[in-house]
């Protein structure tokens, strides 16, 4: 794993170059700490092809890079919405069991969510990450995040993505997380405005925890399932960061891994994707990241103790109350981004 975060603003300035000394290098656009480095090392050992990871810390940042025809990206991790959107725009390569044989190990209910343009990668929920040494009672409601206790003022980390930033307020309002109408978004804005004085940062918590100026002051954050393990690793606090799914329900997400149509190394990229999706790699990756896999064949290789861990594999009653993301209208995205940008005025 590369230790340095590569800002996407830099990435947009010039194509990503191959690592010096490597005959071939594949560029993978991905969240930080989102693939087991040992898997990539095995791939390089077997193939002689290096993998260069380019990190993003928001879906908006990723989409900007992916939309750049000169980005030189070979593979990318996108949400299920992004797989459909960028696939239809011709940016992602169509996938079948013919060009990615390991797809046979994924049920149609998973592969269909990646729209035929990507392979199901990892899945989970969105909830609340919290420091158990600072917060003695585990949060149980989105209200614990949106209307925090007085002692949490300037100890909350939110997220400036136009999708995820609205999940907590919209679920609390009993609305769809995919709401497009201005009236509903206005109601969400009022909840976000009320919360703003308690918010220390609107940067993704995995990024902000590494900021020496504020990392130690973050006690609670909106987060993806699995983030708690990365936070403990980054902060050097084993077991301190924990994760809870609010009782009102949440967002059930699926990340998909895709190959770009413009990849100059497309055949190699497809081979790497197949390698990552194989039962052995998918199981090892899920175990290393402490996250659930969508591969049926990989699931059989994962210990029963892990499969029964509800923090990793959420119980059916939680999933029954979960919502999936759908494509938002252009107007909704613009309104949501304006709302997020305005939050600094209320901090």
From TrEMBL:
Keywords: Periplasm, Signal, Transport. Residues 1-23 form the signal peptide. One of its GO terms (molecular function) is polyamine binding. InterPro entries: SBP, Sperm_putr-bd. It comes from the Bacteria. The keyword Cell membrane does not apply. One of its GO terms (cellular component) is periplasmic space. GO terms for biological process: polyamine transport. SUPFAM superfamilies: Periplasmic binding protein-like II. It is found in: Periplasm. Its main location: periplasm. PANTHER family: NORSPERMIDINE SENSOR (PTHR30222:SF12), SPERMIDINE/PUTRESCINE-BINDING PERIPLASMIC PROTEIN (PTHR30222). This is Spermidine/putrescine transport system substrate-binding protein. It comes from Rhizobium giardinii. The lineage of its organism: Bacteria, Pseudomonadati, Pseudomonadota, Alphaproteobacteria, Hyphomicrobiales.
